[in-house]
Predict the structure.
Amino acid sequence: MNTTPTAPLICPVHATAYEHVGIRVSDPDRARRFYERLGFREELRFDDYANEMATPAGVRINLVFNAATRTDATNVLQDGPVKLPGITHVAFVVDDLDALVTWLQAAGIAITEGPGPIGPRRVGLFFRDPDGNVLEFNQLL
């Protein structure tokens, strides 16, 4: 007799908020400086493994410091001909995409796609951090 309980098809506990995304980087100081320029501030550092950063609005990321150093900033999930499973990018919401475009251009950060409409509810653009991690910034319509 099997006494293992069966789980319902849908989980009875649902996510109530998004806490953070982990972004693997090869140079902790370079990455921290880059994300600080985007408005994140380091709140906590876990020795030489990772940190926690947040914007004044409470948007949180963790930088994970164990990426291998490469000579180029290609992204294995985005740039290779074989599309591997994994998280391809993280998306943030801003209230003034035009101001972001102006700042990115002045800061010398290349926009890799956009700005342009993404579906019916947002306009967005993409760029990369120094390790090639893809970042999407959206203004909701």
